[in-house]
Amino acid sequence: MDTFADYLAHIDHPQHQARLKEILDWVTQQFPQLKHKIAWNQPMYTDHGTFIVGFSTAKRHLAVAPERLAIDRFSDEIVQAGYTHSKELVRIPWDHPVDFSLLQKIIAFNISDKADCATFWRKSL
Fold first, then answer.
1. What's the rounded Cα separation, in Å, for the pair 76 and 64?
2. The YdhG-like domain covers which part of the protein (predicted)?
3. Percent of the chain with pLDDT over 70
4. Most C-beta atoms within 10 A of its C-beta, which of 43, 71, 73, 101?
5. For residue 90, which phi and psi values (nearest 5 degrees)?
């Protein structure tokens, strides 16, 4: 988790810092094969050089960025969890619980769907 230590240290709000650390630790434990790094000023996970998921913080929410295809695939479940989303990210309000089972599905989907992907981002359809 040292990769993310500096990023976490710069989050001013202690509860936001703790929440993101909890999620990053969880992803690292659930998906130990993923590589973690900081890119575009956000913690992210990759698999064989392709993007799987990234995270960032905002004043009112934690943003989860799994790419558009994953958001489209899980849009109904994202809304049922009480989150909003755009085409590129899911917003988890700081005062809402994290739906780890949904996060698990999204990450597992990206790993499986991008197993043969040779680029960092999915090609636009």
1. 16
2. 16-111
3. 98
4. 43
5. -105, 135
Q: Please, which pLDDT band fits residue 124 given cuts at 50, 70 and 90? A: low
Q: Which residue matches tokens 């981002």? A: 121
What stretch of H or E contains 112?
helix 100-113
Distance in angstroms (rounded) separating the CA atoms of residues 107 and 31:
9
Query: Mean per-residue pLDDT for 29-55?
Result: 96
Q: How far is CA 73 from the centre of its chain?
A: 15
Name the DSSP class of 67: -
pLDDT single digits (tens) 65-97:
999 999 999 999 999 999 999 999 999 999 999
Q: Contacts for 71-78 with beta carbons within 8 Å, 24 or more apart?
A: 73/109, 74/102, 74/105, 74/106, 74/109, 77/102, 77/105, 78/102
Burial class (CB in 10 A: 0-12, 13-18, 19+), 113: middle
Choose between 124 and 35: higher pLDDT. Answer: 35
Q: What angle do CA 66, 72, 78 make, to 5 degrees?
A: 75
Strand partners, 56: 63
